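REQUEST FORM: STRUCTURE PREDICTION
Request ID: SP-0412
Submitted by: Lab K.M.
Chain count: 1
Length (residues): 163
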Amino acid sequence: MSQSNDVICPWCQTEIVWDPEIGPEESCPHCFNELGEYRSINLQVKGTGQHIMFDDEEDEDFGLLDEEAETMDDYEEGVQSVLDTQEIAPECSSCRSFMLKVGTQPAPAGFRPFIHEVLAKPLVASSFTMDLYTCPSCFKLEQHLSEADRLAMIEQLKGSAKA
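STATUS: Completed
RESULT:
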């Protein structure tokens, strides 16, 4: 039985004829890309409705992938349903996903507000509250001034501009 001495380059689709005494080419003489198994995927053709399998996969892997995809879909739907109920959903500073509110936190003990000369009073009260958010993608936690304290600070600054 004789082995075929013709190879089709998977990169440029050029037929490569090699000398049986020298052996097969290691790279394509036309596009200079590597030949062989490196960076190549072998697929089996399946009938309609059947999954395409890669060389290193087994049938049961698809069941696991389907379950994982379904779990992620359920997770994403849950995240979206929570986001839909939030008035404020800041973007994560790391990955830009919208963040979920997970709670509130009072000002740290010992916090002393700074008093600006222009205002003659602090921008935030010593008893301010922070809203805590977490990112559903990278799970980073971030703190933001609560809405009530933000509005109070805005009023402080608006009042100083008129004076």
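NOTES: Strands lie at 6-8, 15-17, 100-106, 129-134, 141-145.
Reviewed by: T.R.
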